[in-house]
């Protein structure tokens, strides 16, 4: 559906056109009218589905039309908060709506000045927002709309008490929640704080449809060599390497740097400035390799990554899915390569690979220990299987289930109708 056909302000439509967006993604087609109508929405969607504009357009439109005074968007990480702020500023380039971002790790004075100047939309991490509320720097009641972005991630990171406190201080008229999963603690949060809502479920397995996934059996001591082979294969394409610890991130980036590669690393121990600097260098192509812990896995808008390498496997299938979602975005074919144990056993939950996996299970690295260094050069290459090219804005999971609900039991029934 074209944005022209959706009902929202011409100023915002102008900005959307300037951003180069013509057709609304599935999540946008469903979410924008629901939020403009004044419904709360619970949206199950993944990064890369266009969810930021899906909530960004209607919260902006509602402010522009006087239906809302100001909105708060809570994000799990500083990086995501900045990224959301950037997108919302673009959406509001012609509306006069002021979008700002608050996050921890630096002084509060500048943010206090911004509060005094007035805020229409605030993107914030929960901890920093609570600091401002506790210090009475801002009136939480000014926000009548709250968006919980990547709610599952915020809960995974232990923000449950912070979120509860914020929602109790703010008492928003409208609360919207976006999450890759709607189970467990997310379901509890919804039942406690969002009494009525429209649920919009997007197809779960969009990630992976256009990703050529390979699993390389590689002994621990040859992992760096195997990684260098992939870097060579990628030419100048960007390679995002996931590792499990901050130490490995530092170690690996140092090794790659010493080997003459242009590399940055990003993890939780780095200062905010250093993380932003590394991410900017990767995004602008100054360096083509970014070594990251999972802090970078979700929410970050790093598009056109040709290769995602799971140097260390993720701890769970969900994290794995989010990691590899950095490649194969916006209809491009991507490559995701996971290093598995030298004995050929998959490390981590088997369901990652679904008995053979999307890319065909562990294969390619035939050399193993016996082949020595040269063995790492055996990983398979080739085109995606089955002409699997598909836009990442693939199909809808089910039509949104309309209507208010007070009970979270029901939507789950609805989800069971998935056409996966
Ligand atoms: P998100 O899921 O919000 O992180 O968006 C993923 C990427 O899709 C970002 O680079 C957006 O700028 C881009 N995007 C969002 N909506 C559209 C659209 N309707 N058309 C083209 N690109 C879009």
Polypeptide structure, described:
This protein is of the alpha/beta class. It has two domains: 3-205 and 397-417, Rossmann fold (3-Layer(aba) Sandwich); 211-378, 3-Layer(aba) Sandwich (Rossmann fold), CATH 3.40.50.300. The protein contains 14 helices and 13 strands. It has helices at residues 10-18, 26-36, 51-64, 78-91, 109-117, 126-134, 151-156, 160-170, 184-193, 223-233, 246-258, 272-283, 317-324, 409-415; strands at 41-44, 71-74, 99-102, 121-124, 145-148, 174-179, 198-201, 211-217, 238-242, 263-266, 289-292, 305-310, 334-340. Strands 3-4-2-5-6-1-7 form a seven-stranded parallel β-sheet, sandwiched between helices. It has a six-stranded parallel β-sheet with strand order 8-13-12-9-11-10, with helices on both faces. The longest helix has 14 residues, at 51-64. The chain starts with 9 loop residues before the first helix and ends in a 5-residue tail after the last helix.
Salient structural properties:
Rossmann fold, alpha/beta, 6-stranded parallel sheet, 420 residues, disordered C terminus, globular, 7-stranded parallel sheet, binds adenosine monophosphate, single chain
- The count of β-strands is 13
The total count of helices amounts to 14
Question: What structural class is derived from the secondary structure elements?
Answer: alpha/beta
Helical proportion, percent range:
25-40%
Text of the CATH class of the largest domain: Alpha Beta
Predict the CATH topology of the largest domain: Rossmann fold
- The string of secondary-structure elements, in order, is HHEHEHEHEHEHHEHEEHEHEHEEHEH
Strand line-up of the largest beta sheet: 3-4-2-5-6-1-7
> What would you report as the Rg, rounded to the nearest angstrom?
22 Å
Query: What does the largest sheet look like?
Result: 7 strands, parallel
Mean pLDDT across the residues is: 79
User: How many structural domains are formed by the residues?
Assistant: 2
Taking the alpha carbons of the first and last residues, their distance comes to 23 Å
**CATH architecture classification name of the largest domain:** 3-Layer(aba) Sandwich
Proportion in β-strands: 15-25%
The stretches of 5 or more residues where confidence is low (pLDDT under 50) are 344-420
């Amino acid at each position: 559906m074209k944005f022209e056909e959706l009902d929202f302000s011409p100023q915002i439509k102008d900005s959307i056109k300037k951003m180069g967006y013509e057709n609304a993604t599935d999540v946008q087609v469903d979410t924008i009218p629901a939020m403009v109508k004044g419904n709360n929405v619970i949206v199950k969607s993944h990064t890369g589905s266009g969810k930021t504009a899906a909530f960004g357009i209607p919260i902006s439109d509602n402010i522009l039309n006087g239906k809302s005074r100001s909105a708060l968007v809570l994000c799990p990480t500083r990086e995501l908060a900045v990224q959301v702020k950037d997108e919302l500023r673009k959406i509001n380039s012609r509306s006069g709506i002021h979008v700002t971002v608050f996050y921890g790790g630096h002084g509060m004075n500048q943010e206090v000045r911004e509060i005094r100047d007035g805020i229409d939309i605030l993107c914030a991490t929960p901890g920093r927002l609570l600091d401002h509320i506790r210090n009475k720097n801002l009136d939480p009641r000014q926000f009548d709309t709250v968006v919980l972005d990547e709610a599952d991630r915020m809960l995974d990171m232990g923000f449950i008490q912070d979120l509860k406190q914020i929602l109790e201080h703010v008492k928003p008229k409208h609360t919207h929640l976006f999450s890759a999963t709607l189970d467990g603690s997310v379901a509890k949060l919804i039942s406690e704080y969002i009494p009525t809502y429209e649920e919009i479920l997007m197809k779960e397995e969009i990630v992976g449809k256009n990703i050529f996934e390979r699993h390389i059996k590689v002994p621990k001591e040859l992992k760096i060599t195997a990684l260098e082979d992939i870097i060579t294969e990628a030419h100048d394409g960007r390679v995002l390497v996931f590792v499990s610890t901050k130490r490995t991130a530092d170690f690996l980036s140092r090794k790659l740097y010493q080997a003459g590669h242009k590399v940055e690393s990003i993890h939780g121990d780095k200062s905010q400035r250093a993380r932003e600097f590394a991410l900017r260098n990767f995004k602008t192509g100054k360096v083509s390799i970014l070594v990251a812990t999972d802090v970078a896995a979700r929410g970050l808008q790093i598009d056109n990554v040709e290769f995602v390498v799971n140097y260390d496997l993720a701890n769970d299938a969900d994290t794995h899915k989010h990691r590899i979602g950095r490649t194969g975005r916006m209809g491009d074919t991507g490559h995701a390569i996971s290093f598995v144990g030298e004995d050929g056993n998959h490390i981590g939950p088997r369901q990652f690979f679904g008995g053979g996996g999307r890319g065909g299970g562990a294969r390619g690295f035939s050399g193993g220990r016996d082949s020595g260094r040269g063995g790492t050069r055996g990983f398979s290459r080739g085109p995606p299987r089955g002409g699997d090219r598909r836009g990442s804005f693939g199909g809808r999971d089910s039509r949104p289930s309309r209507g208010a609900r007070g009970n979270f039991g029901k939507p789950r029934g609805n989800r069971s109708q998935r056409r996966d």
